[in-house]
Every structure is written in structure tokens, then in C-alpha cells.
Amino acid sequence: MSTILDNLQTILLTIFLVYFCFSIFFKYIERRTNKITNEIIIALVSGISIVLCMTFSITLPTGYTFDFRQVPFIVGALYGGHRVAVFLLSILLFYRFFLDVPGIELSLTIYLMLVLSLWFIIPMFHKTVNIRKKIYLAILASFFGLFYRMTVAIIFHPANFTLDCVGFFISSLIIQSIGIFFFVFFNEKSRKDAILAKEIGKLEKLRTVSDIAASISHEVRNPLTVTRGFIQLLRDPNLTDKEKNRYIDTAVVALDQAESTISDYLTFAKPTLEHINILDLKKELAYTLKIVEPFATLNDVHIIELCQDTNVYIAGEEQKMHQCLVNLIKNAVEAMPHGGKLTIRLKEQNGKAVITVTDTGTGMTDEQIERLGTPYFSTKEKGTGLGTMVVYSIVKAMRGEIKVESEIGKGTSFSIMIPTTKPFPSLNEKIVSYS
């Protein structure tokens, strides 16, 4: 026991080196490679760890050397399989021969018996999914390794096998078993967490798809139902031409609504700008305000436009820029159910065009702000969140960013920042599509 205390620094350094090698593999490499590559990497990591353990060995007063090479040997064999176990045996014997330490025949005997035991333990280790059973099997392998070592020492060196040596073997068994316990436990825990995280990711994706599908079915089904109903009414032979035209107009409007919804989803799914031009944001904003002003007036919302004197230019697609601004302003108006003031500012700052839309509506919490732009999230009772998703997608496609500030009961401020460009590119300049 005193020998272990005297060599505590060497023991801790050895354990740290072995743990470092394996943790790097299990954390960053294992799940990114296939089975064969994993076996090769486990063999290399285990082989390096064995060499390190044998290099930093402990020498007993009797002259008998001891180290923790069995820890990487057993862990590597259990996770790598039979081929890795044979490879590690070769590495261990070769390095033992290289160190020119006497007693290589004894090492061969010990580790051949250990490999034989592992040959039967490895399949059971791979088949079980219970962490506790895996730990039991790993500790059993550790017991076999030290048992074979102690047996060979008793048979071939009985004179050197003192009471101190017995205590050392028992202490080594405890330390080695604890080391293997933590190796297997943390590795299996890490694996389990990785599988759980992967499954949660899949479920999140399925949930997103489910939400979007539900949103599409809801948004498209309603106008299609309206269209179907009015088409059925057109079968009535007693309808006047005026009624027929009214039914047709209503059906067409419903179809246009369905087409608009589908276009919004396509914009969200593929936010690519195909026809990029130089846009004068001052003019585009004025055009957008003409579209939304009747809607704002209807909801008792007063719009205040604050634009700087000089024009601000960006590279973008006109139609999608209109779509982005209309959705943003429309959301701001709907956030003021009892009317209010909507302020729209346009300025150029640090090489970016900044459009700020500020309302005096209900406001949002920090949690709601974090969820903005995600599928099927909306602060409105009957909202789908599609409009905000489209805004975020379009701004991202134009290499821009969105900043949101809000306070419950006081209102919300959306700031869109998009890189500016020259008003009139030269003939040699080429405008590239952003995706």
C-alpha cells in the first residue's frame, strides 16, 4: 500500500493519459465514423495508451514492475472487438520486447489467458444494452487480468511474493476496477445521451413537419372549400348572370388566397433570390405603405413614416422585398387590436440599410421573441407564424439580420439590417444571386 502512495503521482498521470485518449475518441470521433474506422481508431488509441502506461510503470521494492496497461487493453478489446484484442496483444508484446524487460514469456502467458477470457466476454458485452451489466462484465475482465498476473507471479516468483506484494495486488485490483468502472460508465452515459439527443432531434423535425403540414392543410383547405362550394352553386340553372359572376369572383379570390399561401411556404422553404436588382428602399417602402395603408386605417392605426433625405440602396428582389415589408407591417398592425401608432424609420448606418417598424401594441416576452421565425409559432390566436417565417427567410437570403425589442404593454420594434450597395453598378459589375 505504501508503494502505491509513493507512486500516486505516476498512477494519477497514467490514469489521466489513458482517460484523455479515450475521451477524445468517444466524444468527438466515434459517432462520426463507420464500424471499421472505429475499430482502427480504438486500436490506435488503446495501443498508444498501453505504451504510455508501460512507459510510466511502478517498480516494487522487490524489483517487480507494475503498471495499468490492462485498463486500455480491456476497454479497447471490449469496445473494439476480437480483432482489436489480438492487435493490442501484439502491441503490448512488441513494446515489452522493445523495452528489453525480462519475463516476456510470462507476459505472453498472462495476456493469452486474458485474451481467451475476453474472447467470451466481448460478445456478451456487445449484446447487452444495460449499463450495469456492461460494467459487471468489464470489472470481471479486470479481475481475470489481475488474477492471471498474480497467479503467474506466485508460480514463477514465489520468493518475491510477499505480504506487501499481496496488498499491492489487492490495491491495484481496486484502483483498476474503479478506473474501468468510470471508463465504461461515462462512455455508455455519453453514448446514451447522444442517442437520446439524436432521437429528440428527429422528433423535433417530425414535429416541425407535422406543424407545417397542419398549417398548410388549414390555410389551403379553407379557400378550396369556399371555391368548391361556389362551383357547386354554379350548377343551379336559375342563377342570374350577376350571381354567377359574383360566385366566380369569390371562388377566384379564394384560389388566389390559396396560391398566396403556397407561395409563402415556398419562400420559406427556398429563400433564394432569383431576379436581383438594385432597390431604392425609400421608393419600395413608399409603395408598400400604399398597399397596407387601407388595412391600417381599417384597424384604426396611424402610420408615421420617418425616412432620411438621401436614398438608400440594396441588392434584392423587388417582389420578395414587398412581401417581407407587407408581412412585417401587417403583423405590427394586427398587434394593435384597439388601434395605435405605427412608426416606420429608414436610415443608413455603418454600411447597412436599417428599416425599423415600431408599434404600440401588446408587446412580447423574451421567450416569445426567441421563438419568432420558427414554424407554427404566432402570438395571434389564429395565426400560423407563416408571415414571420417568410420575413426571416427573405432577410436571411439578402444577407441581412433582424433585431427585435419588445416590452409587454408598450409595443414591439423590429429592425431589419441589410447591407447597402451602390445605386447604379457599373457595366463590369455582376450581381450575384444569394441563397
UniProtKB/TrEMBL annotation:
<feature type="transmembrane region" description="Helical">
    <location>
        <begin position="41"/>
        <end position="61"/>
    </location>
</feature>
<dbReference type="Pfam" id="PF02518">
    <property type="entry name" value="HATPase_c"/>
</dbReference>
<keyword id="KW-0902">Two-component regulatory system</keyword>
<feature type="transmembrane region" description="Helical">
    <location>
        <begin position="12"/>
        <end position="29"/>
    </location>
</feature>
<keyword id="KW-0597">Phosphoprotein</keyword>
<keyword id="KW-0472">Membrane</keyword>
<feature type="transmembrane region" description="Helical">
    <location>
        <begin position="135"/>
        <end position="156"/>
    </location>
</feature>
<keyword id="KW-0808">Transferase</keyword>
<feature type="transmembrane region" description="Helical">
    <location>
        <begin position="168"/>
        <end position="186"/>
    </location>
</feature>
<keyword id="KW-1003">Cell membrane</keyword>
<protein>
    <recommendedName>
        <fullName>histidine kinase</fullName>
        <ecNumber>2.7.13.3</ecNumber>
    </recommendedName>
</protein>
<dbReference type="InterPro" id="IPR011620">
    <property type="entry name" value="Sig_transdc_His_kinase_LytS_TM"/>
</dbReference>
<keyword id="KW-0067">ATP-binding</keyword>
<dbReference type="GO" id="GO:0005524">
    <property type="term" value="F:ATP binding"/>
</dbReference>
<dbReference type="GO" id="GO:0071555">
    <property type="term" value="P:cell wall organization"/>
</dbReference>
<feature type="domain" description="Histidine kinase">
    <location>
        <begin position="215"/>
        <end position="422"/>
    </location>
</feature>
<dbReference type="InterPro" id="IPR003661">
    <property type="entry name" value="HisK_dim/P_dom"/>
</dbReference>
<dbReference type="InterPro" id="IPR003594">
    <property type="entry name" value="HATPase_dom"/>
</dbReference>
<keyword id="KW-1133">Transmembrane helix</keyword>
<keyword id="KW-0812">Transmembrane</keyword>
<dbReference type="InterPro" id="IPR004358">
    <property type="entry name" value="Sig_transdc_His_kin-like_C"/>
</dbReference>
<dbReference type="GO" id="GO:0005886">
    <property type="term" value="C:plasma membrane"/>
</dbReference>
<keyword id="KW-0418">Kinase</keyword>
<dbReference type="InterPro" id="IPR036097">
    <property type="entry name" value="HisK_dim/P_sf"/>
</dbReference>
<keyword id="KW-0547">Nucleotide-binding</keyword>
<dbReference type="GO" id="GO:0000155">
    <property type="term" value="F:phosphorelay sensor kinase activity"/>
</dbReference>
<dbReference type="Pfam" id="PF07694">
    <property type="entry name" value="5TM-5TMR_LYT"/>
</dbReference>
<dbReference type="InterPro" id="IPR036890">
    <property type="entry name" value="HATPase_C_sf"/>
</dbReference>
<dbReference type="Pfam" id="PF00512">
    <property type="entry name" value="HisKA"/>
</dbReference>
<feature type="transmembrane region" description="Helical">
    <location>
        <begin position="73"/>
        <end position="98"/>
    </location>
</feature>
<dbReference type="InterPro" id="IPR005467">
    <property type="entry name" value="His_kinase_dom"/>
</dbReference>
<feature type="transmembrane region" description="Helical">
    <location>
        <begin position="104"/>
        <end position="123"/>
    </location>
</feature>
